[in-house]
Amino acid sequence: MKEILIYGPIGQATTAREVVRQFQEARGEDVLLRIHSEGGSVLEGEAILNAIRQHEGGTVFGQIDGMAFSMAAIIA
Question: Three-state SS for 21?
Fold first, then answer.
C-alpha cells in the first residue's frame, strides 16, 4: 500500500502537483492518504479531490493523523 501525505497548508507545504504525481505512481495500488493539515487553497484541494476520484485499480483510505480543517476536511 502506498502512503501519500497531506501535511501542512494545502497549496504551500502540500501541492496538488505533488499529490497528483504520487497518485499516478500508485496506479493499481491501494493508497493510504494521511492528513495533518489546517487546510488551504480551494483550487489546489479540488485538484487533489479529482486525483482521488480518478484513482484507478485500488482503494483510497483516509487517515487523519492530527487535524483536518477547512479544505483538508473536505478531502478527508
Answer: helix
Counting Cβ atoms within 10 Å, is residue 17 exposed (0-12), middle (13-18) or buried (19+)?
Answer: exposed
Q: Report pTM.
A: 0.91
Tell the residue number behind the cell numbers 497549496, with chain if given. 11
The pLDDT of residue 25 is 95
Chain Cα centroid distance, residue 9: 12
**How far from the centroid of its chain's Cα atoms is residue 68's Cα?**
11
Task: Kindly tell me the burial class for residue 51, based on how many C-beta atoms sit within 10 Å of its own C-beta (0-12, 13-18, 19 or more).
Answer: buried
